[in-house]
Specification:
Blueprint: H1 8-20, E1 24-25, E2 27-31, E3 41-45, E4 49-52, E5 58-64, H2 68-76, E6 78-84, H3 87-92, H4 104-110, E7 124-132, E8 138-140, E9 143-155, E10 170-173, E11 176-179
Antiparallel strand pairs: 1-10, 2-3, 2-6, 4-5, 5-9, 6-7, 7-9, 8-9, 10-11
Amino acid sequence: MINESSDTESVVETVRGLMRLIPHPLTVIVAQTKRKGSLPAGLLVSSFNTVTLHPTPYVSFNLKLPSSTYDAIKASGTFTASAVADAQLAEDFLLDKRAETYPDTLWRNVRDQHTGMLKPGRGALWWMRCRWMEKKSQPVGDHVIIIGQVEKAGYYINSDGQGEISEKPLLYSEGKYRNAGPPVVAR
């Protein structure tokens, strides 16, 4: 039996329910305005993805508007993306999702003021420093699709100092944080 919806509100709720079944990796996006003494802006997204690797790596993610993080990306022209491995880091960036404002202590505890990257050992796996591609970014409904060109990328160094990823990325599915399980082999 096929269950189908056709009125707009019903379609919205059906799509929301369907997409909640799919695990999405969580990524922290941070941008710093160029105003002296201003705090950075940042948020947690579940829409971060690669667009292409050749000839140059491009990534994308979606932001709901209005957004102080979008304002900071527009002002600086850059952002840093960091893959999340720790549920507490994800929760820290959900303190006030709508305002995208966080206490100064959060920024001091998790972010390096000079690089804009999250500090090693704070629950992130890897980082990408990106240049915002304004002409490639696109508003859609009440969101904007941000496109960034990756200029630098690397791993956060684990406590063993090797830079190897020993943790798995944090996923979000069905309203809960999850970790990826073992590989599945097709028969």
